[in-house]
Fold:
Amino acid sequence: FVDPSRIMVVGFSLGGRVAIELAKVAKDLRGVVTVYGSLSPSLFINLENTKTPLLILHGYSDPLVEEDKLLGIMNMLDSSGVEWKLVIYGGAVHGFSNPAYGEDPSSGTAYSRVVSEDAFREMMEFFRRLSSPSP
Structure:
């Protein structure tokens, strides 16, 4: 038996988009993390119907989510009432945690050991905080 209120979801790239969609329908998720997710402001419509905390880990130079989309996402999140945190990594592009992409960001996908390690640390801290008993 799994207590559904203890489930947390992580999605990378398109999986990040799916994780946000899941948060909108699975109301008892403990938390959702999206890592270089394929995100758009419209994805966050009707997010106010969930109380699932969100952690978004994103590369500033990710060509899949331009700066104006990122600003729209932040506005949607802020008006939703959902607990959220956005970590933006300067110079990082799509796929920053996948060594298979190599380290040349000119293609729009590239691995960054430093960013990947920090994103993992952020994710683990998010999980620890949400797993701790409430005072």
